[in-house]
Structures are given as C-alpha cells and as structure tokens.
Write a structure and sequence with these properties.
By secondary structure, this protein is an alpha+beta fold. The protein is 22% helix and 44% strand. It has 3 helices and 14 strands. The protein has an 8-stranded antiparallel beta barrel with strand order 1-2-4-6-7-10-12-14. Helix 1 packs antiparallel against helix 3. The longest helix has 33 residues. It is elongated, with a radius of gyration of 27 Å.
Length: 258
C-alpha cells in the first residue's frame, strides 16, 4: 500500500497557513504617505460665470503644479499639506479667450487628511483656490479679475463627496468647488462677474517620470471594501484546508501502519 510521507505534507500545510495569514493581514505598503515633492498634473475644468453680460459656461484646459509637504501627525492622524504653486489654464468664451493663473498674493493651500489613526487611505482632501483671470473686456482689450473668497474644491463623484485613495491621482479625479450662491471676481466694476460653478478634473502626470516619489508610485491602490471583506473568509478557508489535509494524512498514515 502506498504511504504519503508526513514530511511531504508539512510544507503544504505550512504554506496554506502562511497564505491564510497573508490574506488576513492588511497590506501596510498601501497606506503610507510619501515624502514631500511637487506634482505636475494635466487639468480640465468647466466654469460657469455670471456677469453684466449674462451667464456662460465654458471649458478650460492646462496644467497645475501642486506642492505637498512631508506627512505629519495632527489630531492622531496623518496629514499632508498641499499648495497650488503654479496654474496655467486657457479657454474660449463667447467674447474671446480666457486665461487663468495662480494668485501671486494669496496662497492656494489645502491638505490630505487620513480618516483614522494608523491608516492613511482613504483620506479627505481639499484645496482652496485663489486665481487670477484675464478675460475679454470693453473698451479695454482685457480685464484682470481675481477672487478674495476661496474657491474650496473637494473630491466628488456624480456630485457627491468622496475620499481619495492615491495622490497624485492614479486615475482622473474630479474636485468640485463650493460656490453657493457664487464667488465674486474682483473688482466688481465694470464686469460684476461671479463664479457660480467650478468643476476641475486632475489627470495623470503629463511626464511619466514626474510621478516618481508620488503617492501613486509609493502607495498601491487600496483594496475596495468588498475585496477586504472577502479576505477573512478566504483566509479561514485556507487555514481549514491546511488543517484538514494534515489531519487526513496523519490518520491515513496511522491506519496504514495498523
């Protein structure tokens, strides 16, 4: 009668238990904020404006540079400070070309803040944007406008607030501004312009090398809630399978000897 050596089964049993432990344990690499750096991102935006000329919605495209700090602990959770240090957007309104840049007088700051201690992602995020707009005007060719009330932008999907799980974004990430009822563009005269809606989408870095040291490279995407929910039963199943294999083999070996 053929006998299965016990020493051949032990490695299989140990491997099954190791798989169970690996599945049950969270991946810490996915939750680590990286060191400070500056990210250059493609941007597409849609802005709605009212003025004495009426209302208009038009698209803008360009790039943004966002500096981020080293992570630190605040209130028991990890935080990364953000600041828009450069912005270059252009678009076409019904009255002519429009350019948008970062304010030289006011800092467009924000942060990424983890939701619970010891787990960086998912995280809440926001950016307070202060911009300078060069728009067509009459009788002068253009007029320069700016906002003194922040355009606070937060991640959203379908108009609903969401958290972020990577930065710079590993996928297009949309931030919507809270403009209710509107954010004035100064000086009020002669345009009387006011931003009634602003939606900005950050894409992947234009230069693949620009992501080195970024959140995307150092922090793999976090498993979804459904994936995390499956880990425990899979781990238990792997452990039980290893134990059953060991028990059956031991019984068969003892029976064969009798």
């Amino acid at each position: 009668m053929h006998r299965t050596p016990l020493r051949g089964v032990l490695p299989i049993t140990v491997a099954a238990i190791a798989v169970a432990i690996a599945l049950a344990a969270p991946s810490r690499a996915a939750f680590a904020f990286p060191p400070a750096a500056t990210d250059v991102l493609d941007v597409s935006a849609t802005v709605s404006v009212t003025s004495r000329l009426g209302s208009e919605t038009f698209p803008l495209t360009g790039t943004v540079e966002i500096a981020r700090s080293d992570p630190y602990i605040d209130g028991g959770v990890s935080v990364v400070d953000l600041e828009i240090v450069a912005l270059n957007l252009t678009g076409q309104s019904v009255t002519g070309g429009v350019g948008v840049s970062e304010s030289a007088a006011l800092a467009s700051a924000g942060e990424i803040r983890s939701q619970q201690p010891g787990l960086d992602y998912p995280a809440d995020a926001f950016l307070d944007a202060f911009i300078v707009v060069i728009a067509p005007a009459s009788p002068s060719p253009t007029i320069t406008l700016h906002n003194s009330a922040a355009l606070r932008m937060t991640p959203s999907f379908g108009g609903n607030p969401i958290q972020t799980s990577a930065w710079p974004p590993a996928y297009p990430l949309t931030l919507d501004a809270d403009t209710s009822p509107c954010v004035p563009l100064l000086p009020v005269n002669p345009m009387g312009a006011c931003v009634t809606n602003l939606s900005v989408t950050f894409g992947e870095t234009p230069d693949p090398g620009g992501a080195v040291g970024g959140f995307t490279e150092l922090s793999p995407p976090v498993a979804s809630a459904s994936e995390r929910a499956l880990r425990f039963p899979i781990a238990i199943g792997a452990a039980i399978a290893g134990f059953v294999l060991f028990a059956v083999t031991s019984w068969w070996r003892a029976r064969s000897r009798s």
